[in-house]
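Async update (no meeting this week)

Hi team, since we skipped the sync, here's where things stand on the single-chain job. The sequence we agreed to prioritize is pasted below, unchanged from the tracker. I ran it this morning and attached the output directly underneath so nobody has to dig for it. Comments welcome in thread, and please keep replies under the output.
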Amino acid sequence: MALRFAADISTAQTDYGTVLLDERSGQYWELNPTATLIIETLLAGKDETAAADAVVAEFDIDRERARRDVTQLVGELRASGLAA
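Output:
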């Protein structure tokens, strides 16, 4: 499933990944390069399988671990109210 951030979430690319700002609470979230690749893939309208494939292609990680990482990140973003 594609991902989209809530309207009051700002993003900024850094040399180390992506920073998210929840403008409602003022809380910052820092995403590492792996998480950044995952969200970029999902924000482009691709699904979680494509995000896991992108992680496998970019980093030295097995497919099962990539799938777990994608599922965990998406779950945490949704549970925190940052993404739908």
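Quick observations from my side:
Residues 63-79 form the longest helix (17 residues).
The two ends are 10 Å apart (CA to CA).
Reply here if anything looks off.
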